[in-house]
Amino acid sequence: MASLLNLFKSCRPFNPIGILPSRLRIQFPLRPGKLTQPRRSFTPLSSLSTNSGDSIPGVKELWLHNTMSRRKEVFKPKVEGQVGMYVCGVTAYDLSHIGHARVYVTFDVLFRYLKHLGYQVSYVRNFTDVDDKIIARANELGEDPISLSRRFCEEFNRDMEQLQCLDPSVEPRVSDHIPHIIDLIKQIIDNGYAYEVDGDVYFSVDKFPTYGKLSGRKLEDNRAGERVAVDTRKRHPADFALWKTAKEGEVFWESPWGKGRPGWHIECSAMSAAYLGYSFDIHGGGMDLVFPHHENEIAQSCAACDSSDISYWIHNGFVTVDSEKMSKSLGNFFTIRQVIDLYHPLALRLFLMGTHYRSPINYSDFLLESASERVFYIYQTLHDCESVLGEKDSTYDNGSIPSDTLTSINTFRSEFVASMSDDLLTPVTLAAMSEPLKTINDLIHTRKGKKQPNREESLKALETTVREVLTILGLMPTSYSEVLEQLKEKALKRAGLNEEDVLERVKERTDARKDKEYERSDAIRKELASVGIALMDSPEGTTWRPAIPLTLQEPSTTT
Cα separation of 278 and 29, whole Å? Predict the structure, then answer.
């Protein structure tokens, strides 16, 4: 394989060497590397169409907010029909928290939507498996740092699978790319942007005049001891490490500057170039990476190759707790595992998508309960629709669907395209789903709906449309009935009850109603409602469903 040093010296697009097996072949040119084995696949939908072939009306240009320009821009890839996207991955030393979940759900939605639009997307998401935090945790546990990190990489991928995040095209690890990193550092030194001191290599920020253009920070704002380490050997307090001398007992690699390991920022510059070249379309991550990480990446990559260029810098907002950023360093975080122990992973995904990706989202039990109730409603509606349709052949064309139903479908399609093409306005998309779901429920449950001509054709068209949108959003379960049972199990766990407890209370309430003990009947209903169990009476009897607990609904009116 040609070295990364030669790639940056040439500053020309790199063509991959060799042919990947067709099962793993990436359509957009990538450097050869370790490709993930696909666990989950995605079949792009050419359009949200009815069986008659009518496609989405008014396909719009995709607009994305670019942190660099601080405004929304029309998305135009460097190569027509192809997208290169790099998203900074986790530093793998512990279980991931829901702040991480927000980052990767955000870019999974973007990945899916780009694929839906017909782009061939090369999505690279790295793992940092060499870092001070990893070394500290490994020493604490008496474990090899690389082994510990690989273990938590696997745990992270399990979390992503639960959240229905598609696998990236490639998931490179720092420890597999040390030669690339060393090559890149050599080039930066040769170009006069870095210097070596006692085995450490530092980037010289004052040699890079546009340093701060992404974050808007001035060089004099970067005071020593805040975001950069105090080190009197540095020429400028803001200079940052490209290579660190290994301390005794630390993992190290041989280099021209002695035994050591890479700094954090250089890793992503090297790995993004190794797989996507020096110039690609999208670089993403959390808002906290704008400075210093992404600012430093720009400086490094441009110092190595003056033609280095990323078209769109995209960043998602924080998850907050009491208006403070959720993070491991602050100790106010909830791991993904902790949350999905009590709430279904698809409820967590919908919770994260219920706020626009660039806005902060405040973690609360009320909002998670609301998301859980909402996904239950969506899947119950579609399950009821599936039950009505059964195994019947309900093919249809537009001519067989009543005009009001067809209007509902077309309006939803238009709103889906308009909102997703406007910087991924997922909250608007989710809100737009209400109308077709209401139409489905009216057709199934109301006297007027049951008598509507071509009712089954309407139900099929509506269910197909909603299902396809759920698929694009990553919210489509493998089975409606299965996910409904899982949601009920989670609700029972949060309530501290089991199914037998609920059924016993239902029987007590039924007996009370028979005996005209209405006060006792109401008390039982309220008792269950207070812990998130809603009773539903019908001529066929009483059933229950998960709901927002009354104890959470009451204070919500003041927030």
Answer: 12
pLDDT for residue 15: 35
Element (H, E) at 281: strand 279-286
pLDDT at 60: 73
C-beta of residue 245 within 8 angstroms of C-beta of residue 199: yes
DSSP state of 474: T
* Coil, strand or helix at 30: coil
3-class SS string, 346-393: HHHHHHHHCCCCCCCEECCHHHHHHHHHHHHHHHHHHHHHHHHHCCCC
When computed from its CA atoms, the radius of gyration of the chain, rounded to whole angstroms, is 27
Contact partners, residue 32, CB within 8 Å, separation at least 6: 1, 16, 17, 18, 20
Residue type, 27: Q
The Cα angle at residue 323 between residues 321 and 324, in degrees rounded to 5: 70
E strands, 100-144, are 120-125
CA dist 247 and 253 (Å) reads 12
Helix, strand, or coil here: 69? coil
Strands 82-87 and 71-74: unpaired
- Identify the pLDDT of residue 26: 29
Q: Is residue 36 exposed (0-12), middle (13-18) or buried (19+ Cβ within 10 Å)?
A: middle
| Residue 57: predicted pLDDT | 40
The DSSP symbol for 287 reads G
Give per-residue pLDDT as tens, 305-355.
Answer: 999 999 999 999 999 986 777 777 777 889 999 999 999 999 999 999 999
- DSSP-assigned beta bridge partners for residue 113: none
Q: Which residues in the chain land under pLDDT 70? A: 1-59, 221-230, 322, 391-399, 554-559
Instruction: Of 59, 102, 106, give the one whose Cα is nearest residue 85.
Output: 106
Looking at residue 219, its pLDDT comes to 80
160: Cβ contacts below 8 Å, ≥ 6 apart = 104, 167
3-class secondary structure for 163-222?
CCCCCCCECCEHHHCHHHHHHHHHHHHHCCCEEEECCEEEECHHHCCCCCCCCCCCHHHC
At residue 13, the pLDDT reads 38
Residue at token pair 């050419």: 46
Cβ-based neighbour number of residue 552 at 10 Å: 17
